Amino acid sequence: MRKAIDEMEAQLVWADPAMGVVILDVAPENRWGFYRRGAMLVSGSGVPAGCFSWSTA
Q: Which of 11, 33, 34, 47 could form a disulfide with 25 if both were Cys (CB 3.0 to 4.6 A apart)?
């Protein structure tokens, strides 16, 4: 994960201890590159709560 963050010229804002969930400061033109590196969700300005409200995980 750290390698992808560095390659995408992003700044780490917060991460859980296992780096399974991270919040990054990254330029808009670089965001799509995280999908190519395995990201499951990339957002631009936060995700509305409704997007995850169906999940029980």
A: 11
Mapping DSSP to helix (H, G, I), strand (E, B) and coil, where does residue 24 land?
strand
Asked whether the beta carbons of 20 and 38 are under 8 A apart, the reply is no
pLDDT mean over 30-34: 88
- At residue 52, φ and ψ (nearest 5 deg) are -110, 0
For residue 4, give every residue at least 6 positions away whose Cβ sits within 8 Å of its Cβ, in sequence order, or none: 34, 37, 38
Cα 51 → chain centroid:
15
